[in-house]
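queue> holo job accepted ((R)-mevalonate)
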Amino acid sequence: MPVVSAPGKIILLGEHAVVFGKPAIAMGIDMRLTCKVAEGRSNMVNGQPLSDRYHSYIAVAIRDHWDGGPLNVTVDSEIPTGSGLGSSAALSVALLGAMSAMRGGIDEEGVARAAFDVESKVQGRASPLDTSVSCHGHGVYIDSIEGEGLLWHIERDVRQWYVHHCQVPDLTFVIGFTGVRAPTGPLVAKVKRYVDRTRFAMEVVDEIGTITEEGARRLRDRDVVALGGLMTRDHNLLTILGVSSPELQRLVDAALPYSYGAKLTGAGGGGSMIALTDRPEKVVEAIQRRGGTPYVVRTGVDGVRVEGD
Ligand code: MEV
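queue> job finished
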């Protein structure tokens, strides 16, 4: 009866643009989701019969990636759902990790590929960013060409992504959750419609790609001033793409006086923002004053792992 956990994530730079093949940087955080899996008489989730509607990720994972008998799945999560912090990716990764453990041991790359397949089928369009970082932990850098520290190369339809390990220096991030739960699929579809309709939107996506490349260099040098500036610029570009919200903007504005930079993280439309800071207590207070829920998170965490080993 394996118990397997996987981390949530923050996206430092490049969300949305990564769906169009641009680079992105994401990091695992110390909020985890745990899946306990046992063979059962019928498929069950937390004591309820498996429902395609309410347990879509689990249903697709079992349908397309499990060849054994019915499963009894128990999920326990520290990651708020719909918060932009990778709860659905962590769910797919932890469950597929548990299935992999039942077959002899966790195959990190196999789990990353299967989890991306599940995410793509449920969400419609996706990049392998969230599922790869939840699987690998630490940090990942996605690019359209192969570089140092390649973990895996993933193709889907006409798109492809090279997923690399990314060293995560010791940095302090404060997350601000707006409390507004926003599903990823419709936001990704909205950006796609905008890009299909206007050349301008594609230029914004290109600029996010350029900012992310520069951000990867600044992260390597631990240049927090430059990195923070790039995060804030990225946020402004994401706002132009239409994926920010008044609640997100309020929290970004509240955090900026005490931060190197701040931006929405994940799909947007609600969900969460992040601030890079060396004054976390000030940012926590500012986020609380504006009605958000702050979390000071640690990065540099493990990816998918069996618990109790
Ligand atoms: C969501 O966390 C990140 C997006 O870029 C979607 C994706 O990469 O699949 C918005």
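queue> The CA atoms of residues 65 and 104 lie 15 Å apart.
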